[in-house]
């Protein structure tokens, strides 16, 4: 398994994107996002997405160089159109705008539609905490990506509809919740399929509604379905994410599975809360740090070394891999090499 430093991996991806006509600065935004996800151990939103993004560029579903457009705006809100640009580029600019508005009014709420896959949501909400904010982000698939069965159902009717919440703490490491409303994100199943590994039982049911550990059963044909996390709780949360992210952004919500999916893109809701509008930042950070310490003081259960709070595992992985390098699955590495050759560049960033 190749082990690569983040900077080197980022440069390789930028070179590949540039071969597809992506401006260098834009490619860097996307590459850094994907590599950071990989560094955090979130491989479902890491470099395995590169070939998918290249395919989206070639097919015209993602347009390099697109400029974010403001559809409507108030002092604390905005409705944005990503104009088919990269999700990471457009969502990053959208969160920046939400934070800017929160600095003026105490709260900034922004919606975004018509952009590519937005990637790991915790990337954006964590960034907001570095600006002294609490951050929230919800994403649906604009009515597409219906991988998830409703509670009690056996066929996909909802997307994985992820959400992220993050708040700052005195330690500098924010509390970050980043989760799909399904038991596992589709990308994690795809990563296991790529690696030739099995899934835990309880993630996916096959087309007949039977539990399965084979990732291929999700994709079929005939297609299976992911399960919502926590049964009716994850199902209910998923429906509300779909309504808020898809409805408020105008991207659309899940509907007829036979309807054409062309043109459907992520619908995004981003919110930034200025801590200062509610209480002194230092006081809030002290309270959240005390909460973390209190929770971590719980005696660990069997086979658990310690209690970890949301975002802590990812932060530790990032620190570890900054020191030791990022491991990339052999199969993923081979696919990246093949994708680079197809675009006329070497995977080391050189021209063959």
Question: What can you see in these coordinates?
Answer:
This protein is of the alpha+beta class and 352 residues long. It has three domains: 1-65 and 317-352, Hypothetical Oxidoreductase Yiak, Chain: A, domain 1 (Orthogonal Bundle); 67-178 and 230-297, Ribosomal Protein S8, Chain: A, domain 1 (2-Layer Sandwich); 183-227, Hypothetical oxidoreductase yiak, domain 3 (Wheat Germ Agglutinin (Isolectin 2), domain 1). Helices cover 40% and strands 17% of the residues. The strands form three sheets. A seven-stranded mixed beta sheet has the order 2-3-4-11-5-6-7, sandwiched between helices. A three-stranded antiparallel beta sheet has the order 9-8-10. It has a two-stranded antiparallel ribbon with strand order 1-12. Helix 1 crosses helix 2. It starts with a strand and ends in a 10-residue tail after the last helix.
Strand content: 15-25%
Quick one: how many beta strands? 12
* Distance between the amino and carboxyl termini: 24 Å
Question: What's the overall average pLDDT, rounded?
Answer: 94
The CATH homologous superfamily of the largest domain is termed: Malate/L-lactate/L-sulpholactate dehydrogenase, NADPH binding domain
Order the strands across the largest sheet as they lie in space.
2-3-4-11-5-6-7
- In helices, the fraction of residues equals 40-55%
Could you give a short account of the major beta sheet? 7 strands, mixed
CATH topology of the largest domain: Ribosomal Protein S8, Chain: A, domain 1
Query: Helix and strand string, N-terminal first?
Result: EHHHEEHEHEEEHEEHEHEHHEH
Number of domains: 3
- Give the CATH class of the largest domain: Alpha Beta
Radius of gyration: 20 Å
Annotated CATH architecture of the largest domain: 2-Layer Sandwich
Q: What's the number of helices?
A: 11
Structural class: alpha+beta
Which residues sit in consecutive blocks of at least 5 with pLDDT less than 50?
A: none
Instruction: State the shape.
Output: globular
């Amino acid at each position: 398994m190749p082990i690569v430093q983040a900077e080197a991996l980022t440069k390789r991806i930028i070179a590949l994107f540039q071969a597809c006509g992506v401006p260098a600065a834009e490619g860097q935004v996307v590459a850094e996002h994907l590599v950071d996800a990989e560094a955090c151990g979130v491989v479902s939103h890491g470099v395995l997405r590169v070939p998918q993004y290249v395919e989206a560029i070639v097919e015209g579903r993602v347009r390099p160089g697109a400029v974010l457009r403001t559809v409507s705006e108030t002092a604390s809100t905005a409705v944005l159109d990503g104009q088919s640009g990269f999700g990471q580029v457009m969502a990053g600019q959208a969160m920046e705008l939400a934070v800017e508005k929160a600095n003026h009014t105490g709260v900034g709420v922004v919606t975004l539609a018509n952009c590519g896959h937005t990637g790991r949501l915790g990337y954006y909400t964590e960034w907001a905490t570095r600006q002294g904010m609490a951050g929230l982000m919800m994403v649906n698939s604009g009515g597409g990506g219906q991988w998830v069965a409703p509670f009690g159902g056996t066929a996909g009717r909802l997307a994985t509809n992820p959400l992220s919440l993050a708040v700052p703490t005195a330690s500098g490491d924010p509390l970050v919740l980043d989760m799909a409303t399904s038991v596992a994100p589709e990308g994690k199943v795809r990563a296991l399929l790529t690696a030739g590994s099995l899934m835990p039982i309880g993630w996916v049911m096959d087309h007949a509604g039977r539990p399965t550990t084979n990732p291929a059963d999700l994709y079929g044909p005939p297609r299976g379905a992911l399960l919502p996390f926590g049964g009716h709780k994850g199902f209910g949360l998923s429906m509300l994410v779909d309504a808020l992210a898809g409805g408020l952004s105008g991207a659309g919500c899940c509907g007829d599975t036979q309807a054409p999916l062309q043109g459907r893109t992520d619908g995004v809701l981003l919110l930034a809360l200025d801590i200062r509008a509610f209480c002194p930042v230092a006081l809030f950070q002290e309270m959240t740090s005390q909460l973390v310490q209190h929770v971590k003081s719980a005696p660990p259960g069997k086979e658990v070394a310690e209690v970890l709070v949301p975002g802590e595992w990812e932060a530790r992985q990032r620190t570890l891999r900054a020191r030791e390098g990022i491991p990339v699955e052999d199969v993923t590495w081979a696919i990246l090499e093949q994708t680079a050759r197809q675009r006329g560049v070497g995977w080391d960033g050189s021209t063959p």
